[in-house]
Every structure is written in C-alpha cells, then in structure tokens.
Design a protein that fits this description.
globular, 107 residues, Rossmann fold, 4-stranded parallel sheet, alpha/beta
Length: 107
C-alpha cells in the first residue's frame, strides 16, 4: 500500500495526521533536503505534500525527488499565509513543455 506523507512546518502539517498522512516536520532547507532525499529512495511513497515555504527554500530537493522517484506525486501546498502561486506556475510550465501550448493561460 502506498504511503502519503506531509512535509513542512509542524504547525501547518499536523492536521494531515488526522486523515491518515504520516508527517515529517521540517523547518529549514537542510531538513527538507534530508527528508526528501530519504523519501526519494523509498518506492512505496504515493503522495508527498510539501508546504510552499519549504519548497521555495529548497527547490533543488524538490526537483531531485521528482527525478529520483517518478512514481510518487509531490505537490506543493499553501500555508496560512496564502499561496504565492508557485505550484500553479510550475504546473503551467510542465503542461506547456509536454504539449507545446500554454493552455492554462496567463496569470
């Protein structure tokens, strides 16, 4: 069975534990890199939710996780501060690269 894991600031991810997620608290870029590096080697990971602030602090770890573990979905979630739309911009670039058209439109 695939595992679902939330990674980020403990206060923002703790609620996911109530719906069956494992949580991996991280409060800096180094911790995120270590956690994602460890998770990227596990093949039973189905979904990773990563807070937007932590994703912004270590984009290399996010890219490395996606490259190393293509079977897992890593998605970025906003925090209580609201979204910076980083996740949307990333998805938009991916769609444009895959089909050759910016079908999600301009901001």
């Amino acid at each position: 069975m695939s595992r679902a894991i939330a990674v980020g600031e403990k206060t923002f991810i703790l609620g996911f534990k109530g719906v069956g997620f494992e949580i991996e608290p991280a409060d800096n870029a180094e911790a995120v890199g270590t956690i994602l590096g460890s998770l990227s080697r596990e093949r039973n990971i189905g979904l990773v939710l990563l807070t937007e602030t932590m994703a912004a602090e270590n984009p290399e770890a996010v890219a490395n996780f996606r490259e190393t573990n293509p079977g897992a979905i890593l998605t970025v979630i906003p925090t209580h501060k609201g979204s910076t739309r980083a996740s949307f911009q990333e998805m938009r670039k991916t769609v444009e690269r895959s089909i050759g058209v910016d079908m999600l439109g301009k901001d």
